[in-house]
Amino acid sequence: QVQLVESGGGLVQPGGSLRLSCAASGSIFSIYVMGWYRQAPGKQRELVARITSGHVTNYADSVKGRFTISRDNAKNTVLLQMNSLKPEDTAVYYCNTYPLAYFTWGQGTQVTVSS
Prior knowledge:
The protein is 0% helix and 46% strand. It is an all-beta fold. The N and C termini lie far apart (40 Å).
């Protein structure tokens, strides 16, 4: 069974940057569309970016122009470069397949944007 491990979160000031990483076990990772999701306190989990096996990307309007998703199929990793962070980006960030979450959710990585 594929396991997902997210890392790279932390506390950052508004306008700052973070780079999140998602490591997936298992050789079938490369065939899936992968997404980065986030869940803020009291809110539903939402998709912020996704990437196909062929590296075609799509972003939520709220992060377009600020976040960049990428993947390395050989290393079974998905990255999320987050720039110009805003307080409203504060959330726990997760990766999983898209549109359905086929894999068990990992623990996520906390991103807090605050001065």
